[in-house]
Each structure stands twice: as C-alpha cells, then as structure tokens.
Records
---
Amino acid sequence: MTAYPVGIDLGTTHSAVAWIDAAGRTAMIPNADGNILTPSVVLFDDAGIVVGREALKAVAASSGRVARWVKRDMGSPSYSQPIGGHYMPPEAIQACILSQLRADVERALGKSYHAVITVPAFFDEPRRRATAEAAAMAGLPILDIVNEPTAAVLAFGEQLGYLTSPGLAAGPLKLLVYDLGGGTFDVTVAELRPGQVRALATDGDSMLGGYDWDRRLVDLAAEAFQKQFGADPRQDTTSLHQLHIEAEQAKLALSARAKAVIRVVHTGRVLEVHVARQQFEERTADLLYRTSVTTRQVLSAAGLTFKDIQRVLLVGGSTRMPMVRKMLADLAGKEPHGEVNPDEAVARGAALYASHLLAKSQPPAQPTGRLPPTAAVNQRPSPQLQVTNVSAHSLGIEGYNVKQDRRGNTILIPRNSALPVSVSRKFITRKIGQKSIVVQVLEGESSRPEECTRVGRMVIRNLPPGLAAGTPVKVTYEYGSNGRLSVKADVSGVDRSMKLEFERTGERTAQQIAAWRQVLASEGSFSRLEPMIRSDQEAQRAKAGISNEEVVALLDAPS
Ligand code: AMP
C-alpha cells in the first residue's frame, strides 16, 4: 500500500487541500461541493456538526452556534465566543474543520496518505502545539507542520522548475513573501536555489488580516446607521453578523471597483451606505502601515534591502486589495509577482513538503513496489530537497538575576536562528539544600518573564538533601525544523539517567485527545459534547495550578 503526500492549508477564513498527482505535479483536492476552498466555519447544529459553505450560510441565523476565525484563538484556552453557551477549546473546533478536510482527502485518495499542515511562520510553540492536537483529534495522519511562507516558496519553486529539473532554474533567487490572509499576517525573506528553500528572517502578527479590514467597514457602516437612526447594529449579534457579511462583500467589490454599497439591516430599518475605495483605504491606512513596518523590519533582520530582493510573492486572499500591491510596489520599487495563486500556493507547497518527507522515509533506491505512486518520489528527476526554516521568536528561560535581584528572561535561542538548532547553557542552583528546580521556558523578546509567553516547564523534584548552592545545571533546548521544542536539564552529580517530560502549558494527554476524537466523530446533538467540554476545562485548570512554592528559579552563571 502506497501513501500519498497531502498538503493542508488550514486558513483563518478558508482551508484548502492539495496532493501530488500521478504526473508528479501538485493538484488541488476539491471538497464535496466541488470547490477548492472550504470556508473555515463550523456550525454546531442540533443535528450534528456542519463545516464549510453551509455553516457559513448559517452565520447570521445561528450566530451562537457558529464558530469562525478560530485560528486567531489557537493557543488560547478557549474560543473567544461561547458556542451553545460553552467556551470550547479552539483545538476541538479546528479538529472539526480538519475532519471535514480528511473526509475530502479520503473520498479522493482513499485512506493511505500522509499530510503536512501549514501554520503562519510566526506561530509560537503553544499555537503549533494546538494545531498538532487539532490534527490528532481529527484523526489525521500528520507527517509534520510547515510554515506557510515556506510552503508558498516551495509552490513558487515548483512553478519555476527549481524543485524538478535544476537545469531549468536560473541562479539563486531572494524572495520576500508577503502573506496577508483572513486573520493572520506574516512576512518572510527566503532564498530559493535548485532543490533548496532557506528562510532568512520572518515576522508577523497573529491578529491582523482581512477580518480587520472588514471590521473597519462594519464600523463605518454602523456609525452611519447610528447617525441616521440612533441605534447601533453592532449591539445585536444577528445584525452584526449580517453586517460583517455585507462589509466583506463590499471589501471584495472595492478590489475591483471604485465604489461599493453596504446594506445595513437592524431593528427593521434598512440603510444603504455608499463607500468609495479611497475612503476605505483611508479608514484602513494604519493596518496597511503596520504590515509595511513589519516588512521593513524583516528585511533588515535578514541584513538585506529591497535592492537584494528579486521577487515579491503575494500570498493570502487579502493581497488582492489594490492598496497592498501599491504599497509593496512603492516600497520595493518593483511590482509584486502574481505567479502563485494566493489561495492555493500554501496547500500545494505543503503537499510538496509532504512528498519530500515521504521520499526521505521511503528512499526511492529500493524499487519494492511499495513506494508512493507519486512521481514526486520516484518519477520526477527531483534533486534532494533541502528546507531550512528560522525560529520566529526567541526562546529563553526564566532565571534569577542576582545583580538585579529579580527574575529575568535569559535567551538561549535568538529569533531568526536557522532550524534545527540545539543550544546548551550552564546555570547554577540558587540556595543550599534546594529541593527542586524549574526550567520555565519562555518565548518572546522581552527581558521580563511576565511580558513573554510561558511555553511550558520542566520540574526536577526530589533533589538529594543538602545539595550545595551553586550546583551546575546544564539546560539544553533543541528546536526542530517544524518549530517544536524539546528541553533537557542535567544537574551535576545527580542521577543522569533521569528522564523528564517537558510539560507544555495546556498540553493534553493522549487519552484526552482520544476522548475528543471519539466524541467529535460520534453523531448527535451538541449536548453530547458538553461533558467533554467540561472535563477538558477542568483538566486545563488543574494543570494551570502547578504549585510554584517549592521551586526556586535558576541563577544564570555566565560561562
Ligand atoms: P485566506 O485566509 O488567504 O483565504 O484569505 C481570506 C481573506 O482574503 C478574507 O479576509 C477575504 O475577505 C480576503 N479576500 C479574498 N479575496 C479578496 C479580494 N478580491 N479583495 C480583498 N480581499 C479579498
């Protein structure tokens, strides 16, 4: 039985799936409606769970039962809106979308496939962890997680012949990938060589996307309505949802035309608000500006200027807004390129990456007939693909700084380090007879732990009595190409075989994931999910309560 490589772009507003076809090319897998894009929207109906177009249609009528833009809440304990009166974990909602995509894949390819899921490059550890859990809850066989811009560069590389026949491709290309989707934004500078994709620097914003542009139109129209009728449609959930749909439609129209109309319906009254493209651009200029600041920062982090960049790649539906193209053309002094389809590039690139991983695990040198039928592995003259990512955030440890007499963040792996990377650093215990040590992993740039994300921790308990103050502790962080972390700590003179699990903040056990998987796969009304939501919340709360009393911060000992 052969395994097909599959790429899944789990987007904020839409998701898409690609595979490598028999001719060795990437191809999209349509959903049951025959569409390439599946709205990332879930309706928790009494009759069951509905994902995609039908769920989107129900947004206005069943707003308390519909979840959308869930990707923005990944890494948080719960989705921002209650569903059926309950705060659900974002992972479980994303799992519903992934289950639907899984059904689409299985309808097209059968059960033998392995998938790669994409995430924004700047997704931190908790968000990556949450994505992996969502995939596990959906029962998806996942090979790895890959960064969206890396996938986009792979898709672009495929088009230019960089991944297939090196002879076709010219010399190295430096690219800037500007990815503005429905809910997230990121910029990556990368280098493309035959058979090689190397990210050089990356940054982004998990709370910036087309959604925010929609909101500005929602506000504009709601203010006009309020002025006319003295009532605010944003105060009513149903009116607000309907208005958001209208606002997004107007935004799409403004990409093609100079004017659009937003119809506001609230308390039985109707107002048609006319918007000009220029007015829209003025109302959103600050959002666009934020993206331009990030773009410049990423370039300078890569030690480059626009003169060094040969191509600007546009990814994500929101790059269709003329203001984006104009801003980038002004900044770069050259027109951005539209070679890759912004809706499909990420899924296609993920499929290429999946094929590369499968080829690595199933070397084409043994023609056993069990190799993937994908030409990507054994029919294409593919050079060995090399993909290098960078860390989007710095990873540090919460330590005790004696000189300043306060806790601080000591960075072990600086942002934009090429992955995989492994860094060890020596610390020492702080007090005589210290009973336990906490390696508290922080993600972020600040020197203050409270301004960083607490990714997880490792607790070494039951240290031998009377352990001397200043006992060396070697801490090692290993950061994989997929942006996932493992942590080791060795206390000098103490049982070296001691194996400790790195406890990720909020990570679920295999049993909890299996329980979610079972309940999500079962049929029936929303009430069947309620006991699971409650027990999940309790388990999460219990974890958050790990006692900190016994543990003493590490003292950084400069080596
Ligand atoms: P993605 O997450 O890449 O699917 O991007 C979806 C976002 O792109 C949504 O916010 C859409 O409203 C937006 N979008 C799609 N097409 C257009 C367009 N023609 N003009 C402006 N925004 C668009």
---
Amino acid sequence: MSFDTARRMEALPFSGIRVMMERANRMQREGKDIIHMEIGRPDFDTPEVIKKAAFSSLEKGNVFYTSNYGTPELRAAIAEKLTRENGIDYSPSEVLVTIGVGEGTYAAIAAFCNEGDEILVPNPVWLNYIHVPNFFKVVPVAYDLLEENDYQIDAEEIRSKITDKTRMMVINSPGNPTGAVQTRETLEKLAALAEEYNLIVISDEIYEKLVYGDTKHVSFASLPGMKERTITLNGFSKCYSMTGWRLGYAAAPESMIQGMVRVHQYINTCASSFVQEAGITALREAEPDVQVMVKEYERRRNYTVKELNSMDGVSCRMPGGAFYIFVNIKELGKTSAEVADYLLDHAHVATVPGTAFGEGGEGYIRLSYATAYEQIVEAMSRMRKAFAELKA
Ligand code: PMP
C-alpha cells in the first residue's frame, strides 16, 4: 500500500546536489575511487574547543528545552558578535536561535510573505530560496548573477523586476554556488532600492568568514537605514565546520523576530541545549581555528583556479569567498548535467551541474574545494585528462 503525498509537496522535489552525492556514494560502495568535489561541507573536524564545550555542557546536565528564542546567553553572545564583527548594533531580543540557516530561511518566508507575493532571488542560487517560496505559494522572481559581471548583482535588473507584489529580496554573499562576494558599492545600490520600494531583505551571510585576499565581507544590515528591514541569516555550519550540529540564527528587528519565533516554535521548539552552549564558545574562542581553515581554503582556491584555467575547454573566475568554484564548461559543447555525469563516470570526480542551482547554472559545473588538498591535486589531474579526451 502507498499513499500519495499532499498536493503541496509538488513544490518540494529532491535536491540535485543530493542526487549527485548519492550516485557518487553508490559508486564508492562498489569500490570506485571517487573524489568528492560536490559536497558543500567543510572537510575539517569541528574545532576541539567547541567539542569540549559541548561535552562539558552535557556532563553538567544541560539536557532540557531552552527558551523558544534560544538561551539568553547565546542570544547575548550573538548580539555581541554582530556588533563587534559586523558593525551592527543588535540587542539579544533581536536574535532568534535557529536550527541552521535552512530553518531561518523557512521561518522568514513563512512569517513575512503572503500567497502571491514575489521574492527576488539570485539565479543561480542555493535552491531553498526557490523551493521554500514555492511551498508557500510565494513567487520566486530570479535575478541573474552573470559571469561577465563577476557575478555582481545588477541593481538596474532588480529594479526592472520589481512589481507591486514584490515583498522581499534575497542576497547571499559570499554566494553559493558562485563564490562571489558582493562589493559595498553593489550593496549600497541594493539598499537604495530596498528603501525606495519598501522591501524586506534576507541577507544570507553563512559564508561570511570565508573570504580571501583583499576581499571584504560587508553585512547588509550595517548599511545606513538597512537594519530595520533586514533579516540577517547566519550560522555555524560552514565557518566553524559544524554542519551536523544544526545551529544558526536570525537577527532582525524585534517585531520580525516575534513573527519568526512562532513558526520556529511549532516546528522545533528550540535548538539543542548543549549545542547552543557550544555555540557560545565558537563565537568567543574559536576564531584562531577558523583562521587556520580560511588559510587552507585560500591555498586550495588559488591552486584549483590556476589548474582549471590551464585546462582545455574550461575556465573560471577567481571567487572571493565561500569554498566553491563555478566552472564555465560552455566550450565543451555539452550540457552541465552531461559534463558532471561524464566527470563522475570517466574521472571518478563528483561535481554538481550548475543547473542544480537554477537555469542560470547551465554551462557551468560547481566544484567545492572543501576537500583535502591532495585529493584536489589528484582530481585536477584526472579532470585535465578527461577534458582533453572529451575535446579529442
Ligand atoms: N545558505 C546557503 C547559501 C548555503 O549554501 C547553505 C548550505 N549549503 C545553507 C544556507 C544551509 O545552512 P545551514 O547548515 O545553516 O542550514
């Protein structure tokens, strides 16, 4: 016997990244030597100081529900962090502790968009920003991130897409899947539009600390007048290598937090008690560990970009942040899905077709360099050979 899913589930397909990952894992179980460059998760262990804080929290018996909003101590540590590092003056009452940015996204859209409202989202994008709106019958309206613009957001294009139904704009910088970091100048233009059209802005800053060279991360809510209309989403998954801990937060005016917490309380009640306590340690004590990871990512990025740009038929921009490279494969004359399949079958290198991030990803594949340096070296050698064979 089987039951049909509810009609609203049509808006929630399985993710293209997962599909690729599962295929790669199956091949690995069959004994193939697969190199994983498809996964958007750090390969580092969580810093020891954070793990110790969780152990000791459990030992102390910190095993009960916390406030729906998160513990007062973690909310205070997050507000302090946002003031210290991001230059935005938040109080603890303007912070909601979430189960990752994934939940923050859902709560923000559920709480502030009506059916038929429009939400401006990047293309290509982390697909939650398409599927979550669809689930609530909110209409995602794509704006393009183009390679020729260095993946900077074009404010004039955004203006041309604003209607009287536009309610929200999503900005993700540093961005997945392009690795692009939006400049202050770009963000200032978007701030002017947000003001002019009275938009709520979701600023997904989950990769904020993963920026390289001279690149600087600017928090959207730190721009004049933007705090009142911005929901800053951030979390511990990427920068602290804590993807499995499921901890994140939203920072926004208190009235918006009051809306989001009502969604949160009926799904999760609260984030895990001892994970929240470890989160405080992450914010206050793990910066040296983060910087070690950032340095290593930068080394991998520099190497991988140089290698890719010396191969036949492919090219890429130097991304300023995150741990992704969006590789242009147009010269190969195949779709991005065909190229990703070809690399997995012939080179045993797993990547993600750009189309897993929306139509704007056609002609690209995404590589993640959150994989050991030696593995990347081997992957580059296999890819060089595979592309040469494809062109021959
Ligand atoms: N936002 C972006 C842009 C992401 O790429 C990801 C993870 N792939 C997330 C949010 C999810 O973060 P979390 O683990 O905090 O739910």
